[in-house]
Each structure stands twice: as C-alpha cells, then as structure tokens.
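Sequence of Actin-like ATPase domain-containing protein (Furculomyces boomerangus).
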Amino acid sequence: MYSNSGVDSSYNQGIYLSSFGLGSDKIILDFDSDCLKAGFSGEYKPLIKIPLRKEQQVIQDDFCETSFRLSPSKIGLFENPLRENDLKVINQVLKLTLIDLYKKYLLLDSRLRKVVIVESPSLPDPIKKLISKILLKDMFVPSITFFPGSLMSLMTLGKLEGLVVECGFNQTSITPVFDGRPLELYSKSTSIGYSQIQTHLSNLLCKHATYSLKGSENKSLLSDSILTFELTSHIIDNFMFASPLSPPLELIVDKNSPKTERYYNVTSDFLFDWYQQNCMASDIEFTWKTLSEVPITISIPGWIRERIFELFFFGDFASDLLGIVPLIVKIMKSVPVDLRRTLISQILVVGGLSVIPNLRLRILKDLVTLLLSDDRCKPLADSAALCDEVDPALQIDSVENDITSTINKNDVFNSHEKDTKNVHYKNSGLVFSPLNRAWIGTSIATSANINGFEISLDNFDEFGVSSQYM
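Predicted 3D structure, token representation.
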C-alpha cells in the first residue's frame, strides 16, 4: 500500500495550497472491487491505495456512521454477478471510504476539487451510480468525469490504438481501442481474475501441498483453515510465475468442443501428470504464521508454481471459465478486417496479474499458437506483439540513437529529425507500473487539459439513479 509518509515537502506544500482553493489539480479515483487508488492529477503514481472489503457489518436500525464497523474479507467489495441485497452495504462502505480518503490522505475539502474517475469495464453500472451519488450529493464535489481506463492505459505509451487486457480482481476484460475510442461493442470479459486464481490455487494446494509444525518432521496436507486470503495472496505475489513452456494443444482441447469452436480444459488429472513430468521449477518451502500465531513450514511443489496460470491463459470448459487467449482470438474474428493488424500488433496487459513474471510473454506466445492453428486468423500471427515490450536496439542511452549526437554530426538534419525523435522516444512510457497505468494515463490526460463530459448536481438526475441503490 502506498503511504503519504514518503511525500516530499513540495508535494505537501501543493496539498496545502490546494486546500485553500489556490491549485487547479483534480482528484483522480480508480475503483476496483478490491481497492481504491486515489491521488492528484499531474502525479506519476497514486498517492494512496485503500483496500475495499465488506464482511461482518454491524448496522443498527437507527444507522449512523459511528455504528458501522468493517473487518477484512476474503472477497472484494462486490462480486460478479452483483447482488442487489448488497448495494445498501456497498453504499455505506464507499461513503465511509471516500470520507476517510479526503480527511486522512488528500487533506482538503471535497467541495474544492473536481473529480475524474477511471472507468473500468469491471465496474458495474450500479456501483458507478452509487459513487456518483456519494460524491455529488453527499460530499458536494463540483463535478465528476469518467475517463475510459483502456484508453488511458494506452496513453501512458503515447498510443491511441491497441488491444487492452485489464486484469481485475473479479474479472479480466479485453477492450479494443481504435483512434482514441474504446470499441465496447467488440470487448469481451471473463470471470477469471485475481480472486479466481486464488480459488484455483487453494484447491491445488489442498491436494498437493503440505505443511509441518516448526521443528517437526510430520507433514500434513494443507487445509482451507490455513489457506487464508493473506496467505494465498502472499504465495501468488512472491512464488508464482508463468511457465515458458505451453502445454500441447492436443492435450488441452476439450473433446466435447463443437467443430465451429474449440474449448479448453487445463485442470484434468492427465494434464497434472504432464505438468509434473515437464516441470522446470523447484519445490519451495517457507515459514508462515497461522491465525493462532503458530509458525508452520509450508512446502509447495514446483509444478504448481509454474502452472497455476494455465487457467488464466486457456480457461476451463468444464467450469464454464473462458481463457484470455481464446477471447483475444474471438475479438480478432469479430472486429472489422482493416483494424485487425493494428490491434493485434499493440497488445497491452495491465492490472493486478500483469506483473506476474513471464505472464505477458506467455499470452503472446499462446496467442500466436492459436492464430497459426486457425485458418481465418493465420495471417495475423506475424503481426502479434506487445506494445509495451522493450526494444533493446532502441534504448535512448545508445550513441547511435542519441538525438544530440545526430545534431552535432549533421549540419542539415531537418530531414532526419522526425525519424530520430521517433527512435529516441520509442521506449517512452515503459517505466510506468502496469498496476497503475490507467490511473497514470488519466493523470497525464487531465494535466494536458483533456476534458470529458462533466456530471454535476445540475444534470445528475438525468442519469436515472434509482432509489433502490441509495
């Protein structure tokens, strides 16, 4: 979690001036089901990341904010599909979270600054309406504007076209963007997100991983009582990676697939045997404390470390889970023919799972494999590429690519200036974390005075927020 303890004095001074209405920066909010990222426009990263949880709510009949308590939950603030009975609780959680955000971290009056919200495909419309109602009617912000997260992510790389894969907590969405416009008609999503990977990991660990008490040689299989949200998150973030070796297609194609479309199954016992036989990762042991503060040593097989994300890549037909790579192929078949090469050549993966080692490269590798195996998409295989992949030949510290050396060597350089600058800035934007690309892109766009439609109290009722969400 980001904290405000490391913010320098000039930043604190900027907050101080903003609190008196002397600044022009806006507040940028990026919601997912498990966290809220917030900060000021013009900054290179969010100021704070606040977890969003709901569990064991205590709500009295005469509800007031002081009677409302929260404790950590295994799930995020909302699930897909969204349950209507949870909306009242979600409304109160969001309200208290936003009030704390302004009081503890932003340190300013909510009435002084306009708000820009990163619009993610994983954010349901009822949640957007709740957020809008809280900000406008309860906190009296001047206005709110929604910026599409897919386009904002591409803007961090100076691009307005591409295929954006947004890995959220509850779902992963794939959105094609062309000419600065998200093509939502062709976007697709799957329920495989961070939480689904956690569930898949827990199931595998209960069957194949062991633990022992400190100082004891007796080992037992892990149980659900030990595999908490914090433990599975720790394992995914620190020990898991995507294997560079893809399983053969003939092993993962479901036999019940129709002729017109192929479905995949990566969780069969036969495949687990293949994973173990072709394992390249070593087994790992680490120490962990249970909820009762008892230290234990956990042992995880190497094949689980490198194969946990096969579900993310191909999905599981038996569980009605769609994989990322087959979804990209579906999108390529559905978009207009003249856009396909442009989109497939600029794939951008952002979100929580995007920082997993080798995950982005495996998506590209498996995508090329599926494209080559499909007669309709085979010509696109040569064009598939990641738009945020570093090109070592175009690093700006190279003498040949340094624009200043070109200027010194040539008296007349106007004809070469454009090409040289393009080379010089080819890898710009790669320094930004994939976790925060949508937020950072919104910060860049807002600082560049790129505006959108502003929703205020004057036109808020036109958007039809139903009383059932209040």
